[in-house]
Amino acid sequence: MSTTIADVRCHVLEAKINEPFWWSFNQSDVRGSCVVEIIAEDGTSGWGECFGPSRLNAAIVNAFKPLLIGQDFRAGDLIWQTLYNQFRDQGQKGLTVTAISGVDIALWDLRGKHFEAPIHVLMGGPLRTEVKAYATGTYRRGAGDPLDYIVKEVEGYVEEGFGAMKLKIGFGVEEDLALIRAVREAIGQKVGLMIDANHGYDVIEAVELGNAIAPLNIGWFEEPVVPDELNSYCEVRARQPVPVAGGECEFTRWGFREVLTRRAMDIIQPDTCAAGGLTECKRIADMATAFGVRYVPHVWGTGIGLSASLQLLAVLPHTPPRRTPIEPMLEFDRSEHPFRQAIMKQEIEHKSGVVQVPDGPGLGIEINRDVLTEFAVAD
Ligand code: CA
Question: Domains (ranges, CATH) in the chain?
């Protein structure tokens, strides 16, 4: 098999969903994705996905194309550095790095196919072959009472066997408190419950809420405040007792160096499809170990991003190392997504809240090309 990159293609996919969903600062009735396909000279394809606005990601991946064609796909680190250095002056965070992430994942998939090994084996694992998943959902709908339909939704997750779930908040302290109390009451004391404000609060509100929910055994308080204000993160950490999580809007080792050295978060959540791909996220994970900070990846998107996250989860270091270590969890998005699973020939599903790490070559998934056509956005 030749190891030369012959072509790079972006598949911009979009699908309308039946019911629009709201979170603290926005709403949507569309699920979209930028899927990156890197094709070797012998016709083998490697697949990646970029987190974020699909058309903008595609524009940047297409700009990378001349830097990728003719390169050896085995030289993943060299390619990462070339792309980052080329666009560094304007591209240290955001879309340039999300675009690099999709490329990096596709290159790992190609290497896995070339060496006939799962990515997590090439990365030195596995440390684990399955992970506990927590359910992400509980978005607001256009109509109805959240105290009614969200409570029903979380009861469904308990019935499905999930041992933990995440509740979307960020709509105002009073309203959020009522919902958090109702959900804790509904799911009982044994099921893990985390909250995610999607940076919908300022420090005063986040501190008020965090102190009020102290008796409710909340696993973490995710994105309490805007990501670009690390001082606010530090204040929220210092002034209320719930562990603070964040990082889905942070990028690269340099971005997380600031988070870690300033001790702004208890748990970091880099997105593998955003923070720099598998190559960079492994570096960030190792760095987090050196700071004694937990790492639980943010996961959003199609089965490609899901599989990439599972490959990384398989190699995340044990922190702290002990006989029964704390294991990282998989964020398992349960909200409506017409092609999340359909993009793969075989689904990645949970059984009683546990998901197996795909162990085929590369990402361990096969892409259903009909779905790429069905949901393709016209140029
Ligand atoms: Ca989040």
Answer: 5-116 (3.30.390.10), 121-356 (3.20.20.120)
